[in-house]
Amino acid sequence: MGTHTRRRFVRGTAAVAATGALAGCNGNGNGNENGNGDDAAPEDPAEAAENFLNEHDANQYDGLVDRTGEDEITIDNGAGPNGFAFDPAGVRIDAGTTVTWEWTGEGGAHNVVSEPDSDFDLETELVDEEGFTYEVTFDEPGAALYVCTAHRAQNQYGAVVVE
């Protein structure tokens, strides 16, 4: 390809890229694709939890564990080979179920803190004490999306789906 042809190709490619970028800015700004101004339907709590855990490549996550029908469940905080996981990472429960996070003592100090898209507010201090517990009774349907802030970079994320 000659110099002029190469320059023309580069200019043409840049023009096409710029046109495509500007086309994306020409929407009506309502945040949905149908342009009618309605908000999109809210995400199903199970779908929200699965997407959240998959997007963050959560340690120990291999699908939502069904714990419906139980009054109380325990989630280990500091699970996995390096202590940087919740076990189970994703769980499905009934409304009215009490969830207890129990610190394993592995992986250093941990906490449980809800993420912005969570339907529930969760927050503990960083604790490195084996046997420490944090208990929440979930009375309403929704998705609790949470992280250990000390191990966000190590993918220590979890979710509770309340039906």
From TrEMBL:
<keyword id="KW-0479">Metal-binding</keyword>
<dbReference type="InterPro" id="IPR006311">
    <property type="entry name" value="TAT_signal"/>
</dbReference>
<feature type="binding site">
    <location>
        <position position="110"/>
    </location>
    <ligand>
        <name>Cu cation</name>
    </ligand>
</feature>
<dbReference type="InterPro" id="IPR008972">
    <property type="entry name" value="Cupredoxin"/>
</dbReference>
<keyword id="KW-0186">Copper</keyword>
<dbReference type="InterPro" id="IPR017533">
    <property type="entry name" value="Halocyanin"/>
</dbReference>
<dbReference type="InterPro" id="IPR002386">
    <property type="entry name" value="Amicyanin/Pseudoazurin"/>
</dbReference>
<dbReference type="InterPro" id="IPR000923">
    <property type="entry name" value="BlueCu_1"/>
</dbReference>
<protein>
    <submittedName>
        <fullName>Halocyanin</fullName>
    </submittedName>
</protein>
<dbReference type="GO" id="GO:0005507">
    <property type="term" value="F:copper ion binding"/>
</dbReference>
<feature type="domain" description="Blue (type 1) copper">
    <location>
        <begin position="76"/>
        <end position="163"/>
    </location>
</feature>
<keyword id="KW-0574">Periplasm</keyword>
<dbReference type="Pfam" id="PF00127">
    <property type="entry name" value="Copper-bind"/>
</dbReference>
<feature type="binding site">
    <location>
        <position position="151"/>
    </location>
    <ligand>
        <name>Cu cation</name>
    </ligand>
</feature>
<keyword id="KW-0813">Transport</keyword>
<keyword id="KW-0249">Electron transport</keyword>
<dbReference type="GO" id="GO:0042597">
    <property type="term" value="C:periplasmic space"/>
</dbReference>
<dbReference type="GO" id="GO:0009055">
    <property type="term" value="F:electron transfer activity"/>
</dbReference>
<feature type="binding site">
    <location>
        <position position="148"/>
    </location>
    <ligand>
        <name>Cu cation</name>
    </ligand>
</feature>
